[in-house]
Each structure stands twice: as C-alpha cells, then as structure tokens.
Amino acid sequence: MASGTTRTKRTAHTTAPPAAEAPTTSTSGPATLTSAPSRRAARRSRTALDTDTGLVHRRWWTPYLFLLPGLVMVVLFSLWPFVNTVILSLTDAQILRGGRFVGLENYGRALDDPDFWTATVNSVVYLAVVVPCLVLLPLALAVLVQRKVPGIGFFRSAFYTPVIASAVVVGLIWQWVLRSDGLVNTVFEKLHLISGPIPFLTDSTMLLVSAMIVTIWKGLGYYMVFYLAALGNVPTSLYEAAALDGAGAVRRFLSITIPSVKPMMLLVGTLSAISALRVFTEIYILGGESGGPGGGARTLPFLIRQVGLGFAGETGYAAAVSILLFLLTLAFSLLGHRLSKGDER
Amino acid sequence: MTRRHLDPVRNVSRADGASGAQGASSACSASNHRPGRSRPVMATALAAALLSATAACGVGGAEGSSAAEGQPKRTGKVSGEITFRTLQLKPNFTAYVQGVIDAFEKKYPGTKVTWEDVPGDGYNEKLVADAQAGGLPDVVNLNTDSFQLLGDRGMLADVARLDPKIAQEYVPGAWEQYKLPGKGDGVYAYPWYVTPEILTYNRELFAKAGLDVNKPPTTVEQFFDQAERIAKAADGRYSAFMADPKGRLPGDWQKMGVPILNKEKDAFAFDTSKAVEWVQRMKKLYAMGAMPKESLTKADDLAQLYGAGKLVFGPGSPGVLKDVKRNSPSAYANTQVAPAVTGTLKHIGIYTQSLGVRKDTAHPDAAAEFAKWVTNGPNQVAFSKQVTIYPSNAKGLADPYFADRGDGKDPETMARAIGAEELKAAQLDANTPVEWTTQVGDAVVREMQKGIKGEEEPAAAVKNAQEAANKILEQQQKHQKQKR
Fold first, then answer.
1. Hey, is A91 helix, strand or coil?
2. On the CB side of B198, how many CA atoms lie within 13 Å of its CA?
3. Domain B80-196+351-402 adopts which CATH fold?
4. Residues of chain B positioned with their CB less than 8 A from the CB of A259
5. Most exposed of A44, B17, B100, B382 (fewest Cβ within 10 Å)?
C-alpha cells in the first residue's frame, strides 16, 4: 500500500502540475498563495532566513528580478501581439500598409458578412460535437487501459501515436481513407452497401463531420493521458470499500470514478473547446484551400487566414475577426469556469 | 462497516471535495481546487497565443513612397558589399549559385556578395517583416506576389532607369511583367528563371477514346469535347482531367475570349455567355465523372493520379514530368507533350521569378550589375541545365540546348523544346491580372464550385461570382485611394 501511494504521488508530480503542491498544503485547505496560514508560514520562514544570513536589505523589486525572464517572454510574445491585434482591428491596415483608424467599422463589417456567420456557426457546431466526445471517449479509454494486464503498454502507446503524428500527415491519411475512391467507399461499394460513393470530402456538411472525426481520433490519446493521471490519484481504498459494500463495476464507475475525475473533465472540456475553436488544419487538408466546395466548411481561423492572405490581405479586418474569435473562446472558457465554480460550492 | 465506508465517497460526489481535510479525499480536493483557479489563466494564455499567431504584422509598418520617387543613381563604380537573398535554392543549387557569385566577385574586385537562402514556406511573410523593419536585402529573389507587394509599396529600384539598354536582353513578355500597372514605364525587377505551361497526356488512354494522338486540343472548347469522349470511354475507371477551378481560372476564360476586367480596369466584367458556357460544360463533365470528385477542391495529387494511369491529361508544368519519370516510368513513357491550350489568345502567359533591387540600396551599381549578372544568358542557361527551368533571357533561350528535340519521343526533351518556343511569344494578356487577388480568386472559385456541383445554376454562379469579386475590388480600391 505504501509503495502504491508514493507511485500515485509521483504521477501527480510529473503529469498533473495542479496537484503537485497537494502534499505540502493539503492540511491547511486549498493551496493558494493568498491563504492566510501559508502567508504567515512564509513570513516566519523569511524572518528566520533574514537573521541567519543577514539578507536584511532586500529590495521590493527582488522578486520581479526573478520573474523578469518569464515576464519578458510573456509580454513580448503573448501580451504585445494581443494588444497589437486589438489596435490593428480598429484600423484598415493592409499588409505593408499601415492603417488608418476606422473605429469599429471592421466589426460592423464582420457582423454583416455572411461568410463570417457561416464560419461562426461551423466553429460552434464543431465545438458542440467535438467537446462532449473528447470529454467522454478518452475517459472510457483511460479506464480501459488503466488495468495492469500484460501488454497494456502497447495499447497505451498505440492510442497515443496519433497525437505525435503531425496534423498534416494524419489529414493526408484520412484523405485517402475518405476519398470517393478511397478505402471506406471502395469497401462499401464492394459489399454493395452503397450505389455511389459517399461524398465525405465533397459535401460541406460531410466534410465538417469528417474533420470532426479526425480531430476526435487525434485527440483521444492526448486527453487519455490527462485522465490516466487523474485516475492514478483516486485512492484504491475507495474502490475496495465500494466493492466490499457490493457495488458493481458500473456503480463504482459512476459513484467513484466520475466524481473523482470531474475536475479533470472540466479541464479537458475547456482545453478541447479552445482547440475546437482553433481548428484549421483538418479542414484545410481534407477540404482544400477553399474550405470545402463553396467554402461551406470554413471555420473562423480559416476565414481569418483567407482574409489576411496575399498582397491584398486585409490585416485590419482579419484582426477584427480574430478578436471576435477570442471573445467566443473567452465566453466558452468562462462557461467552463462557471461550471467548475458551481461544483466547488 | 456497510454504509460508513461509502460516506467519504458520497462527500466527494456531492460537494466535490469541499471537505478538504477528510483524509482519503484530500488529494482529490487539492487537485479539485487548483485547476479551478488556473483554468481561466490557462484559457486566456491559450487564447492570447492563438491571437498572437494571427497578429503577424505591426500597425505602423514601413510606409512606401510612390514608385518613381527616390530612385537610386548610379555612380559608375561597381564596388561594395551587397546582400543577396534567394528562395529555396539551398542545398540543391548551392554550388551553382556560389559559382555565379564567385565569378562576379572575380570580375568586379572590390565587391562582396553575402548570400542567404530562405525556405519557400513563409518566404513572403519574412520578406514583408524585413521590409517593415527596413531590412530588405540589396538584391532579392521575388515571385509574382512578392513583386507586387514590394513594387506597389515603392520599395524597389527602377531597373530600366539603372540600365536603359538592358530591356532587349530579355524575352519581351518577361520584361513587361515587371512594369507596375498604371505607374508609368518603370520596370522594377530583372526577370529570372521561368517555367512555361505545356499540355501533357497519356497517349494510350487518349487513343482509346478514339482521338488522334497527334491532334491535341488547342482551344478550351476542344479540350472539353475531348474530355467528354474520354469520360465516355473511361466509364469511371479513370478521369480525363483535374477540375481544379482555382488553377483553371481566370486562364480558361481568357482563352475563351472572356474579358476579365472592363476597359477602365475598375470592375470585373467576366459575366458573359462564354463564362456561363464554361460552367455548364464543367458541370456536365463533372457529373459524367470526367474529373476526380475531390479535384473540385483539391488538386495536389495530380502527378500521383497521372502516374497511376488514372488521369488522361497530366501535369501542365515541365518540372513535374521529372517526378512522373522517377515515380512511374511506364506513365512517363506513355506521355505525349504538346503546346498548352491557348484558345483565342494563341500564346501563353509568363510568370518568371525575378531579382529586385532595393530602392535605397547603398551600392546601386554593384546591386544592379550583380542582378544583371545572375540573369544574363550564359548563367541562366547553366541554371536550366541543372533543373527543369527556362531562361527569361532572350539570348539564353536562343541556346541550341532549347531547340534540340532529340528523336521527338522523350517527354522531357520535347517539353523543353516546346516550352522554349512558347516562351518566345508569351504575352502578359494571358496572365492573371493583378486585380485577381487571392481574395477575388477565392470568391470566384467558391461560386464556381457550387455551379459545377449543381448547387447553383451556372448563370447564377457566374453572376454571383462577379458581384462578389467586384465587392472585394471596391474594398481594395477604397484602400488605395485613401493612400494617394
């Protein structure tokens, strides 16, 4: 049992950073820097340090010095580009042509643009289908491969392989599977299940579904690892106790596993929602540069690229659509946050 | 021993570990709270990262002056250090390019050329970033897009002014390509290598449809007629050609005599009966299975399909023949090469790579002489012998190497001879007009896809395409007027 606990702890340290501080602060409640007991503890240790080593003349900016390398990176590569995008979205800038301030014109234009609405609807539908699948399927998979049976390592690795493969390679493979003369259609035709090929890639709706399948298939292994880490944190004693009380496998899954990994489910939901809103590669590889016939399978990132592309690319308008995508992402993230808040109470 | 043990579990499920101190569930509770707090931070960071990916360029940016202003003056002394940037020539052509550079430095002592090569991916983006930061190289390899981008913003030197006599060195079409529309007689780059459009087809499958192998189509209408016969003979086993509306337009229309723009060049005018006819015929052929279904949106597997004998009309670029030769020798042996379909135009268009000279270069003499040196006859011919490209230099094109047809059977040799012949007569009116930007092309292609698939009537598709294209053009011209 003892060795079992240390192993779980190690998994927690390596794969789930949020749980890493658990051992030190679990007795004083949630591990936050602002909680009073820990702050007091910190002050106490600091005083001890001061008297011992004579580090009395600390400057107020000392901590910031340590933060500096990280801060510089964040400001330079995350914050500034973000601010820049906000500014750009208020101008009519083009590539290599500094813009003029036009206020909210770009936003108005986006809301009037039927292409924008097609892309928004596609993105939201994509999210609505992909997120539930990516929250539930990897959990089922993780529960399956969690058991220690001989050769399970092979399956764990096999499920993770698509994650390592580049999205382009994955897209190309699926393209050959789904084409009108591809694997699926040929097999179906040989079996006389269909009279003509199923238009997986040449019909906008089918294309969107095909891209979702690729996204889900590729995401399974990734989120499975998240769940494996979370499952490792569930004390085995709970299962043992439940089993003693006569709870079956289904009952144990619903009453112990699900509640225990619920925070992870919310995290996976949020992460997969963000990546679902960013989907581009799958649709580009499967549906070509126009984003499906007539551009019917375009998502918001696809639209942003299309608008900003080439020597006539409208950077200002593209930035405005980016901001709208950001707001959408933010809305879904806040929704996820709200859900988790409701849980904590 | 019965209910009590399940209690902590219930607690977890009900309050999700709010009772943090309870022994067994404490680990869970800790992991419950932390993600709750870090999640919005993570989400924001991720979203910000997404945004930063799209925030490619700054607001200010280098504002170009008009093209004619601030042109460099030659001093007559060829010396100094210049920088030279090429597009994806390393490592395959390192020896060739370095040889050209060495010979130049030997010819003009006191010059030094620093060469840097940039991979094809993101070439234009890097160029834009450098131009914005004022760090353009002295001599820079440009393609059609980047030429337009830098030329239009007045960042390139007028090479006709640097070298009044140089024009006759190049094929007329190539030279004309580097004038900026509506900006006078200035020429803003030296033409470099080029690949002409040709027609290739599978001899065996062509004959199987009852067509004469020695009578390839010369007009778009003939091409469609023949494709129809091929589709009938194929019965779904192979296709005639790739739909690829993006690659086919506006070229096909130009070859059918459809005007793309009006006379004033301020509006698109392709909504004609001929253009509608094009959609109708494409629609019919698509339904017949004359083209692979997926080629309506994606045409990047052309060489693969052709090599596998699943396509009758093969690559339209001589360079791709080499891939076919390497990957499927049988398809290569079966290939017939003919001049490209040109229809009413009777000549092909021309898209050369070029060398631009930075307008504010510190050494205009060295930069101009070097660009001339790289693009002169002998150096371009030497380059053509290394890879399937053609010189834009008239003297280079007159080299016997390009007249040799061998026994008239080898596709590559034939492509070289036919392509070189076509280039001599190439003219710009067969090129895609600059007004046909990425966005215009995209808008038109999307309507065409709907029309060809039958989701929209052909006439409506053309009408909608023109409306969409004009809307984009209007937006573009609004931008430009504000700048003037």
1. strand
2. 32
3. D-Maltodextrin-Binding Protein; domain 2 (3.40.190)
4. 9, 12-13, 16
5. A44
pLDDT in tens, B242-268: 999 999 999 999 999 999 999 988 899
**Angle at the Cα of B282 (from B202 to B209), degrees rounded to 5?**
30
In the three-class reduction of DSSP (H, G, I as helix; E, B as strand; rest coil), residue A241 is classed as: helix
Give per-residue burial for B188-216: e unless 16+ CB within 10 Å, then b: bbbbbbbbbbbbbbbebbbeebebeeeeb
Single-letter amino acid, residue B434: V
Residue B466 tokens read as 């023109």
Burial class (CB within 10 angstroms; exposed 0-12, middle 13-18, buried 19+) of B407: exposed
Q: Which residues, including other chains, have CB under 8 Å from residue A123's CB and lie 6 or more apart?
A: A276, A277, A279, A299, A300, A325, A328
Homologous superfamily (CATH) for B198-347+429-483: Periplasmic binding protein-like II (3.40.190.10)
Closest residue in chain B to residue A326, using alpha carbons only: B47
Is the minimum CB–CB distance between B24 and chain A shorter than 8 Å?
A: yes
For chain A, say whether B476 makes contact (Cβ under 8 Å). yes
Q: Is B151 on the interface with A (CB under 8 A)?
A: no
Q: Can you give B151-210 as a three-state secondary structure string?
A: HHCCCECCHHHHCCCHHHHECHHHHHCCECCCCCCCECCEEEEECCCEEEEEHHHHHHCC
CA-to-CA separations, B2 to A236, A241, A248, in angstroms, rounded: 17, 9, 15
Rounded to an integer, what distance in angstroms lies between the CA atom of residue B215 and that of residue B213?
Answer: 6
Q: Name the amino acid, one letter, at A12.
A: A
Nearest to B50 by CA among A184, A77, A213: A77
Chain A residues close to B445, C-beta within 8 Å: 290
pTM: 0.78
Given a contact cutoff of 8 angstroms between Cβ atoms, the answer to whether A85 and B53 are in contact is: no
CB contact under 8 A, B43 and A274: yes
β-pair type (B80-87, B139-142): parallel
Cα–Cα dist B3/B12, whole Å: 15
Q: Strand, coil or helix: what is B456?
A: coil
Q: What is the Cα–Cα distance from B417 to B314, expressed in whole angstroms?
A: 18
CA distance linking residue B441 with residue A310, whole number of Å: 11
- The ipTM estimated for the assembled molecules is 0.74
Residues of chain B with Cβ-Cβ distance to A288 below 8 Å are: 294, 297-299
CB under 8 Å to A196, separation ≥6 — which residues? Answer: none
What is the rounded distance in angstroms from the CA atom of residue B32 to the CA atom of residue B12? 10
Is A66 buried (19+), middle (13-18) or exposed (0-12) by CB count in 10 A? exposed
Which structure tokens are listed for B66?
A: 């008009």
**CA-CA distance, A207 to A292, in Å (whole number)?**
7
By DSSP bridging, strand B198-202 and strand B335-339 are: antiparallel
Please give the average per-residue pLDDT across A316-324, as a whole number: 94
Select from A233, A229, A242 the least CA-distant residue to A268: A229
Tell me how crowded residue B334 is: count the other CB atoms within 10 A of its CB: 18
List chain A residues with CB under 8 Å of B475: 314
> Which H or E run includes A2?
helix A2-15
Amino acid type, B454: G
Closest CA to A213 of A265, A267, A177, A187: A177
The helix (H) or strand (E) run that includes residue B274 is helix B273-288
Where residue A32 falls among pLDDT bands split at 50, 70, 90?
very low
Tens-digit pLDDT profile for residues A213-259: 999 999 999 999 999 999 988 888 998 899 898 888 888 888 889 99
CATH superfamily of domain region A115-344: MetI-like (1.10.3720.10)
| Parts of chain B belonging to CATH 3.40.190.10 | 80-196+351-402, 198-347+429-483
